[in-house]
Write a structure and sequence with these properties.
- The chain is an alpha+beta fold.
- It has a single domain (2-60), classed as N-terminal domain of TfIIb (Single Sheet), CATH 2.20.25.30.
- It is built from 1 helix and 4 strands; from the N terminus they run H-E-E-E-E.
- The protein has a 4-stranded antiparallel beta sheet with strand order 1-2-3-4, with no helix packed on it.
- A hairpin with a 2-residue loop joins strand 2 (40-46) and strand 3 (49-52).
- 9% of the residues are buried.
- The structure holds zinc ion.
- Zinc ion binds at residues 34, 36-37, 39, 41, 52, 54-55, 57.
């Protein structure tokens, strides 16, 4: 009984987490507009580290999503 209720909670929770992971992956793979050169070339190189491939500028931003 204990494990059953835990399982139900786990699957609900698991779906939310999976949706979140898909969302995060989508955002982290996306190219973002560079605030320095205005070209869509900012890519994530590490958690919270973003680099513009055009002008080479490095930005510290969100771990999975670029925010100016
Ligand atoms: Zn740039």
């Amino acid at each position: 009984m204990k494990s059953k209720s835990a399982g139900q909670f786990g699957s609900k929770y698991g779906k939310k987490i999976r949706d979140k992971i898909i969302e995060v992956k989508r955002k982290s793979k996306k190219k973002y507009m560079c605030p320095a050169c205005s070209r869509r070339a900012v890519r994530r190189v590490a958690a919270g580290v973003w680099i513009c491939k055009k002008c080479g500028k490095k930005f510290a931003s969100g771990a999975f999503e670029f925010r100016e």
